Amino acid sequence: MPDQAAEGDAVNLAGSGDAVGGAGAPPLSGSTGGLVCSEVSVAFAGVRALDKVSLSVNRGEVVGLIGPNGAGKTTLLNVLSGFASTVTGSVHLDGQDITHFTPQRRARLGLERTFQHGRLFSGLTVRENVELGALAVRASSRSARSIADRLLANLGLEEMADLPVAQLSHGDQQHVSVARAVAATPKYLLLDEPAAGLSEGSMAELGVVIERAIRESGAGVVLIDHNVDFVLKLSDRVVVLDYGEVLAEGPSDEIRRNVDVVSAYLGEAGVEDLAASQAQ
Amino acid sequence: MSWVSDLVNAISLGVVYGLVAVSVGLVFGVLRQVNLAQGEVIALGAYSLWMTRGLPVAASIAICCVVCVAMSLAIQVAIFRPLRGASALTTLIVTFGLSYALEAVWLIAFGPNGEPVSMLSSLNSVVLGGSIALRWITLVEIGASGLFFTGLVLILYRSKIGMMMRATAEDFQTARLVGVRIDRVVTWAFVFGGLSAALVAVLVTVQSPLVTPSFGFNLIVIGLVGVVLGGIDRLGRATAGGFVVGFVNSLLGAVVPEQQLVFLPMLTFLFVIVILVLRPAGLFTPRGSIVERV
User: Fold this and answer.
1) Could you read off the pLDDT of A45-102 as tens digits, one per residue?
2) Domain containing A56 — which CATH number?
3) How many Å separate Cα A112 from the centre of its chain?
4) Is residue A149 in some structural domain?
5) Which residue of B has its CA nearest to A140?
6) What residue numbers bound the domain in which A105 lies?
7) What is the CA radius of gyration of chain A?
8) How far is A218 from chain B (nearest CA, A)?
9) Structure ipTM over 0.90, yes or no
10) What is the nearest CA distance from A72 to chain B, expressed in angstroms?
């Protein structure tokens, strides 16, 4: 399957054997479940940022999205969440065409996202930030409070509940950002570089929080991050983008050994190292 | 001991301008747009007190509250909703124009000489005689404003809508993206702004009963100056700024000779200019903060 991508065709990225986008393949737009984008192309000032990319994620599944700088990862996340318009292609959420829906409308349908820089409310406490996530989906004040408390306890964040967010470290703010998104009981969750700027230790802690959050919500997750190991460790399935096209797709172990992926990231030297390690 | 009464009077005028600042600051907080027509909400509230002068005081005050909230919401629907996303300058000019237009309406409807509101005039009687000359209205202004500020703080920090208002005031776009119901937040900001305007109308007409067409505009100009003086980006700072302007204005009025009172606005504005030149982001905004460019 990764080789298909290397040959330049649009690739089957459906997680459970759904119909696929791509040359000669039926489009995904008729799919009834999951968060699905099919044959999406996006251009900025005439430059193609995404070229007929298709991707799907099912509830309870974690799909990692990796690729070198400029590969189109964030653009794809923006397409899914409604922050970027498509030139061609469509986005469906559990069978409903949401291609032209605003981010707010998508959020109301259960599509939540986090942001690279958290975008938390620094004047509010940790608990209030998480409560807001619940209030946004019509929870009452009391239930929002109990959702926030339960979530903070389950994610191991209860000790910081009453602290103003402005007092937290960058790593802790990323934890809260994930908690706020989960409080909205999303069906699908898009995590935009949650580990950016974190130390190894903080990244490991964040990984634990994300795993708990996924278990807590049962949401389908699309995770992008520059740290490939971080993504590979958390993902059931990984999609690799390069120059706006899908380069490869498959389970983490397969991706680690994929020659095209190693070449895109590390060049020929990396491929030679990979070949040497496989020979051993 | 006259300094005691001067001080208490200054505090009472300070809290009234603090209320004016709240009515402007609440809307600015969530929308980052200035409502210059808020003064006309106060003016209509004051005229409603005159129009309902035959009713019991409680009914008259209740009607004033309803009128102010209704007008505040009407401005929200007719002006601010269509102009959502427009530049702050556009809204400033539109509400400035609306203010002028409404002044003309008051002029046509009520005449140029003003209408006297005689409600609660007994509050102008003296509490203490002798050297400390205090009137009941001074204490009522401090007490009522204190209750209003306390209630507002409780709503902002203890209620669902208050939390949403604080989040929206901090980052409108993110609040919208995480699903905060912005329309509801904006509506409540205008409701509280209307209530604050009603309280100002009641308190000011007790002290200065003559309601003229420029009644509201004069208040809003000083209130807005206070908002900028305190720091327009935070409601607490804006309110404190309103208080400071009222406080300083009252103290200067007490020390300036009576025949020189015509210079009182000049002296007050001179104070404001000096403060803003020294602290462009506002008196209560931490040094080094970025100045809001409206």
Assistant:
1) 778 889 899 999 999 999 999 988 888 899 999 999 998 887 789 999 999 999 999 8
2) 3.40.50.300
3) 10
4) no
5) B160
6) 2-110+185-279
7) 19
8) 19
9) no
10) 22
